[in-house]
Write a structure and sequence with these properties.
The protein has about 80 residues and is mainly alpha-helical. It contains three helices and no strands.
């Protein structure tokens, strides 16, 4: 996937993750994209380690792995912010 594809996937994943876990998190459009892109990397890393697969394109499996990674990052971010 190219850089534009990662940005688009990151935007979609970040929006889905924020929709599934609403809250008063600081950050707007840029943070949503960054959350989605890093969530895709984290989800792909964890998914490939446990044998579930990796983020390889715009399909349902890759999208769910990326959203799972973004939600995991959002949980960690909120936990660190409370301290």
């Amino acid at each position: 996937m190219g850089i534009v594809s990662w940005l688009i996937l990151g935007l979609v994943v970040g929006i889905i993750a924020k929709f599934l876990m609403p809250g008063k998190d600081p950050g707007g459009f840029v943070l949503t994209i960054i959350l989605g892109i890093t969530g895709a990397f984290v989800g792909g890393f964890i998914g490939s380690r446990i044998g579930f697969g990796s983020v390889s394109g715009f399909d349902l499996r890759s999208l769910s792995i990326a959203v799972g990674g973004a939600i995991l990052l959002l949980i960690v971010y909120r936990a660190l912010k409370k301290k």
